């Protein structure tokens, strides 16, 4: 199945739908399809006769990203869609390990390739050297997206056309999307929340799609909602925190615009109690979505109730070591929208499947009927506002700038608004520079993983065998964080 051709045909069919980028430029779906087809011709000339070359897209939300994605698909290339804020170090590793042949990015191209080719959609940076990929894409792979939750560096996750369309059609049916809807999406289109509930479902259903180019302030969020009058709002918990902080002072018509959206969707990361309380005073309810990048959408919490919602029709969860007494267990998941493999970690994805082909998600939870309740993670990874990060990778990053022999602990702290943030404790007698630690993390891992709290301590809580006790250390770190200062 040619995913690019299928999606272009959908765009041509939905003549009344429009795509609106973060700067307000509106493009009817048929015109978007025409622009994509024209750029596909440019990409065919750029890549020459190379079979299914990998093209990396590191663009902010906007028309340019969507056109490049669909054009790459139509040109029979394999697009790799990544967070535009990915660090230079991680991007360099991806380019090499995935055998990327050309890059379209919102950054200085000097380190990205060998030459620049100008097109109607911007400058592509071409890499002319030998193929350095650690593996080839699966024969049915249509596109790739990144996961940072189960590997030290981001895993390049492969998806077939069938998986992409199954995720979109299942979500569109479950959420009732149609040509009458207007989706206002504040999440990055590279992320599963936006990709699986907004970008591809809009093309499939004919819903209009408006995207925000960057995380806006609370006032700007309210104004965008008032201007576009969406029927569906999509964003991570921080979006709803910003709405909650401004809703009491907003104009009545702005409040009504938020209220009149039939669906306000967030990730499974919990909203702070104060946020829910403020929104509830205005009869504003937020609905959770749960999924993983490896499986696609799994549950939908609508109408809103306790837990993460009911299983979608194409999803099955098996509880590892389930005792049948409501005790939480590891979640193993199978859907029709699952990944094929990791391009840059051969064999790793396959090792995370159980004997029945269920993906071992690393999440903990339990089921009451078909309703899911999450209870944390099995593995040593952090989940910050819906983004996952390897503790080991963060710890190694910090260790590169602290005194030799220091012990680094990376964990979660809870801020005064109830949000998860990154905290770092360093067991050392030497001097510590929190600003240097934050700078190094931003440089290597990206700004979204900058620690909110950094402190030096004389001793970390340890067991009798000398191992750091994670639960006790996170509790200790949160007690220090509550005092409000690095040290």
Automatic annotation (TrEMBL):
Alphabetized InterPro entries for the sequence: AMP-bd_C_sf, AMP-dep_synth/lig_dom, ANL_N_sf
Keywords, ordered alphabetically: Ligase
SUPFAM superfamilies: Acetyl-CoA synthetase-like
A Pfam family matched in the record: AMP-binding
Domain of life: Bacteria
Sequence ranges assigned to domain AMP-dependent synthetase/ligase in this UniProt record: 11-324
Recorded family membership: Belongs to the ATP-dependent AMP-binding enzyme family.
Protein name as it appears in the record: AMP-binding protein
Native species: Dactylosporangium vinaceum
